[in-house]
Amino acid sequence: MRHQDFKCPRIGLEKLRKTADEARERYWPEDTFPVDMEEIIELRLFLNIEPLQDLLSDFDALAFLKTDLSGVVVDQKCFIKDNFSNPLRFALAHELGHYFLHRRLYTKFAFASPEEWKDFIINLPEGEYRAFEWQANEFAGRFLVPYLALQQKVGDSLEVIRQQKLVGYLKKNPDIVLSRVSPDLRRFFGVSEEVMERRVKGEGLWPPQQLI
Amino acid sequence: MFGEFIKTRRIGKGLTLRKFCILIDIDPSNWSKVERGLHPAPQEDEKLKKIANVLDIREESADWQELQDKARISAGAIPKDFLSDERVLKSLPMFFRTLRSEKPTPEELDMLIESIRRGK
Predict the structure, then answer these.
(1) How confident is the model at residue B77 (pLDDT cuts 50, 70, 90)?
(2) Cβ of A168: how many Cβ atoms within 10 Å?
(3) Which residues of B touch A76 (CB under 8 A)?
(4) Amino acid B82: pLDDT
(5) How far apart are CA A101 and CA A140, in angstroms?
(6) Domain covering B2-81: architecture
(7) What distance in Å separates residue B9's CA from the closest CA in chain A?
């Protein structure tokens, strides 16, 4: 396959979410949070986790799925440091997104040399590349922060909003109120604030309709 | 050989790379390479006993003997300084998500190829 023929499969948002929900139900039936990505990758999918030096500092990346689908390479320092656990969790879920959504494509490519691989990556159409990444991000968000659990946690936060007399602010500026409650939400799911905010808005749970 | 022997037992015990490395007090990056046959096994008796203990391998058992034998054979293997193109290709990513949400530059791709080739 030539790079100009490389097309991202058109997968609708609903299908992406369904794929993530089904994968989580199958590989994380505990339904507890935060989801333990290393347990899923290593002990349930039997893929390797391979720390590599300077992946973040030299290549601006936290993780990637190997072309032979045998494992996920992760930045060594981030893997060791506790304060990178949330970004790493999302990065691993993102790579799992490629694994579940795009793995058929991986088998279609046969590069003769690293230079051919490099040429392929450089010449990939930017739009197609971004579409792949968007799909993997959507998968990761839904995998780590599923709708029903999120709906319940947002529901729990309504009481806090009432107690702190933030209902008025909620109507005027919902983002400010979200920034007050999102630390509790993101701690529960083990994701960054950015992921948390994208998830509540993406699922139409913010601002909460019960209070406006 | 040694790496596969340990990895099979580690996974069988339900231990992730991280948890196992905490228990045996070793750097996970180095240990991952041992399991993939890119680094030789540790040779110190104390370290091997620690590994065996975590994996419930009793001293004097057949498994303990096998663990020691495989560790010694691993030490005799000549480590490769550079991976072959074939192995490098298997380790490269199809999709490479930079944190700045852009495709990597040609220079970054060259460095990544070199880094994987050297088994960093």
Answers:
(1) low
(2) 9
(3) 28-29
(4) 62
(5) 11
(6) Orthogonal Bundle (1.10)
(7) 12
